[in-house]
Amino acid sequence: MAARKKKVAKVVNMSGKRKTAIARATVRKGAGRVRINHKPIHIMEPELARRKALEPVQIAEAMNRLADVDVVVDVQGGGQMGQVDAIRTAIARGLVHYNGGAEGIDEELRDEYLRFDRSLLVNDPRRKEAKHQMGRGARKKWQKSYR
User: Fold this and answer.
1) Which CATH architecture has domain 12-120?
2) What is the mean pLDDT of the chain?
3) Spatial contact of 59 and 95, defined as CB atoms under 8 Å apart
């Protein structure tokens, strides 16, 4: 009795981070849909955030890399624009790795993303500075007067 080989569907999981927001993207074979927290990306509000989140999608569409894949993104933590930056990083990384084939990375798509904006593929390391003693925040100090 011959053993049957299961055909494994290619699935890529990638993440993106910005401040305290974390986005996890799953890219798999599909019909070109992009969903964020179970909602289509095209109904995301406000419009500025939607436009920013759609940048990696539009670049991939222009290069015919999005027609046969579905992208599902789960994002949590942080504020609205931090989440948007994390979303676009996760989507871009996922598409680069999904379309890479045997070598793992789609060089042409990666170069196009880097040419457009480096933060599409690289997390932003900046974080909030912690509050220090003797003050109300990271830099402001309580005033003192000796006279």
Assistant:
1) 2-Layer Sandwich (3.30)
2) 91
3) no
